[in-house]
Amino acid sequence: VTCDKCDDVMQRHQLEFHNSDECLQRYYKCPHCEAVGIYILMIFSHLEECPDLVLTCPNEGCKDEIKRREMGSHQQKCPKEVIKCPYHDIGCETEMKREKMDEHVETNTQAHLKNAVEKIREQQQTVIKF
After folding, report:
1. How many degrees, rounded to 5, is the angle at CA 128 between CA 122 and CA 129?
2. 5 near 25, Cβ under 8 Å?
3. Residues 78-96: b if buried by 16+ CB within 10 A, e if exposed
4. Half-sphere exposure of 58 (CA within 13 A, CB side)
């Protein structure tokens, strides 16, 4: 017999198993989000974007498992995310894990203040030139 989805030829007693487990053109329901589509497409493209697929946080040291759709909000608060110092705009080039940033800000208050004063002076000089 011939599969009506993929045109593979097999013995009749193999057809039921082929239709349920082997046929690349069979319908397949994503086990994560329950979207339904053609098996071959679901396996090779849908899983690359499935919003409910559980992923491990990519931040070094974080082992949290999060659905893809929630990863962005997780990374916005993940203590292991490497972030720029909030005083980056005035010259602090420090980047470190979020969980350590408060300590950095506290211990570098004088340096940040010095950078801010220099930045203000630069802007004043620019204004004076105009």
Report:
1. 95
2. yes
3. bebbebebebeebebebee
4. 6
Q: What's the one-letter identity of residue 55?
A: L
Residue 117 CA, chain-centre distance (Å), reads 38
Which helix or strand (DSSP H or E) is residue 99 part of? helix 98-107
Q: Rounded mean pLDDT of 37-47?
A: 93
Instruction: Evaluate whether 39 touches 29 at the Cβ level (below 8 Å).
Output: no
Fill in the DSSP letter of residue 30.
Answer: -
Q: Which of 29, 2, 34 is nearest to 15 (CA)?
A: 2
The tokens for 2 are 């011939």
Which one-letter amino acid corresponds to residue 52?
D
pLDDT at 105: 97
* Coil, helix or strand at residue 93: coil
Q: Which amino acid is at 50?
A: C
Say how far apart CA 82 and CA 96 lie, in whole Å: 5
How far are the Cα atoms of 67, 92, 95, 100, 111 from residue 105, in angstroms, in the given order? 32, 10, 11, 9, 10
The pLDDT of residue 130 is above 70: no
Task: Give the residue among 25, 21, 28 at the shortest CA–CA distance from 4.
Answer: 25
